[in-house]
Amino acid sequence: MKRFVNGEEVELGVSDAEISTLGNRLMVRTPEGSFSALAVRQGDKVLVSYRGQTYTIEKIRRTASSKAAGSGEMRAPMPGQIVDVIASEGATVQKGDKILVLEAMKTQQAFNAPFEGTVREIKVRRGDQVTDGQLLAVVVALEVPA
Length: 146
Known about the structure:
- By secondary structure, this protein is mainly β.
- It has one helix and 15 strands.
- Strand 1 and strand 2 (about 10) form a beta hairpin.
- The longest helix has 4 residues, at about 65-70.
- The model is unreliable at about 65-70 (pLDDT under 50).
């Protein structure tokens, strides 16, 4: 899984470390020995203090300011289930029109058209389980006559 660690994109994967948790304390067992770490959630970030270093870990978000959103791509910010698909392929939408709804962690998140345009693709159906970063829909901007 990709995350930002201290502002740099990093692929976090499985290692030979065994990690157990007790509240915000982590016990990390590695071939080099056992170490204690402290993890504290601060908004959308997790601050981890481990072996004398502090790490800031953040999910890679695809927001309206990202290239994907600017292109009209709508991607799941986390795993979840599609609970409603409002728009259909080929539909003309106005900025802010609801396209679909994702439920994750008992919270529903609406995906709205980022600009006036046409729904080019709907990649999911109601009831579909989706993964973090999965493409859900694409809206293309209407071309303004010159």
